[in-house]
Amino acid sequence: MLNPGAAKLRYALRKTKFALLLVRMHLFRIVIAALIFFAALILSSCSKQERPLTPEQIQAKADSIFRIKLKKLQQEAKEDLERRMAIEVKPKADSIRNVKNNIAEPPEIRADGIEERPADTSLGEVIEN
What letter would DSSP give residue 1? Predict the structure, then answer.
């Protein structure tokens, strides 16, 4: 004899398996519908043709890109100038100051056209042979 509780249990188990089968079929339908939707969306977006830009739109885009690049170049040039000023200005100023302090006398031209330069005293000691 079958136990009445076991029969109820078998019935409930069959009912649960059937419910799980229905849920799986429903999820399968949803996944298939989503795939079809996205495939249609991709195909419809690829079939659209681009609208060509008008000359005004092209010029506006070019100006926008130019302005951005120009600002970047100006910023880089300003940073480069500030960095190089500290490096280059002092030696050049010192060089100019030294030239002003050590101005040589102009050469004398003899009657036969040969230049005679005065001795260079800025070298300090004269090397004797």
Answer: -
Cα 51 to Cα 5, 54, 105, distances in angstroms: 73, 9, 77
Tokens of residue 77, six digits: 């040039």
Within 10 Å of residue 48's Cβ, how many Cβ atoms? Answer: 7
User: Alpha-carbon dihedral of residues 58, 59, 62, 67, nearest 10 degrees?
Assistant: -150
* CA–CA dist 24, 17 (Å, integer): 11
3-state helix, strand, coil in the chain (%, to 5): 70, 5, 25
pLDDT tens-digit readout, 80-119:
998 888 788 888 888 888 877 776 666 666 667 666 665 5
Amino acid at 123: L
113: left (phi over 0), alpha (psi -120 to 50) or beta: left
Backbone torsions φ then ψ of 118, nearest 5 degrees: -70, 160
Q: Are 110 and 102 in contact (CB under 8 A)?
A: no
